[in-house]
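Late entry, evening session. Most of the bench is empty. Finally got around to the prediction I had been postponing all week. Sequence below, unchanged from the version circulated by S.P.
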Amino acid sequence: MNKLTNKISKLNYGYFLWHAAFLALASSFMDIDTIMPAVLGSAGGNAFQMGLLVTIMLGGASFSQLIFAPYLHNKNLKRKFLLIGINTRVLALVFLAFLFFNFNSFPDSLKIVAILLLAGLFSFSGAFANISYTDIIGKSIKKTKRKSLLSLKQIISAIGLFVSAIIARKILSIFDVPLSYAFLFIFAAVFLSIASLGFWRLKEIANNNAHINLKQLFRFMWAEVKINHKLRRYLLVINTLGISISLMPFLILFAKENLAGVSIGNLLFFKVTGGVLMSSLLFYFSKRFKYRYTLYTIIFLALSMLAFTFFSSNTSWLFYFVFFLGGILVVTYKITISGILLEISHNENRAMYAGLVGAGNIIPAFFPLLGGWIIKTNGFTVFFLIVGIIILSSIIFIRRLNCVR
């Protein structure tokens, strides 16, 4: 299929919303900001291993797009590869559930290695799927409907997340670790499988891209960075502001070391509540908000999270509010960064841009690993200070980005 009609766009709009709804129901059970760090902590993971986990799940996944991008760019139709990526994630979740059903049968060192490996499989397969997803959504939805889709997708996702967060909190309160985590991963695998059904009937528009290899990809990347000033500034923004979305796993570690009685289920619930609220606001104002101002909002949220965490050592309720702000931050960042990428790319280069952006996401990719070392050697105060300085520096690049929308 080579022509995007209004009818096809409308049908695909619905399929993407189906996927968003059931993915949201799965997401709370495999949340990378609360559940996955807590899972590693249950196996005795330290600050450095927490940093490694975050690097794998955020940075490693982004870098793997560099390898996947040329291969997927050469495919005119990408739905099959999108489904392969999603189903591999389901497989990783099933293995994680098996690990926690038999948790007491393994030594701690093996548990940590298994969690890191399966987290890697989950993240890399997600990165593989995301390139196809970005390309398909860009060429299969009318340009005038993209921002409303991204915003509506977020509000539907937020509602699904809210429901699944309540279920997840209940599971965590009924069952003890490790059984509670095993059930969480089973729920995640089931809902993610259902979410993938939305793509079986997707009407994909074929590309006619010239074939490219990894060497040509590097040439393409260098050429695009030189000629596209918006792309350069976009890369600088995600390399500075991007570390804000890796904060919450480290805050889980902070709570483990400094706060007594903090509930992982409640942290997840507050995070999701913040996400629901912000998704609703961004959807309602989808025709009016500007990406530049949402980027400034992210800076304010990240710095507020750092400040409130610093003063929450003896106040658990304030720490829950930090995760409420974190939910707002994550939703705002995802909508903004996805929207800007669609704006600065087009159908013929979108898959390549996804790989380029993944490869160019250098500081957020490696900073969590460095952050774990900083915390281990210098403590949380130095870590918070460094993070704050990097996030503030993004103001310079945001001012020069000049997004149209």
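Two things to note before I forget:
The mean pLDDT is 80.
The longest helix spans residues 108-140.
Will write this up properly tomorrow.
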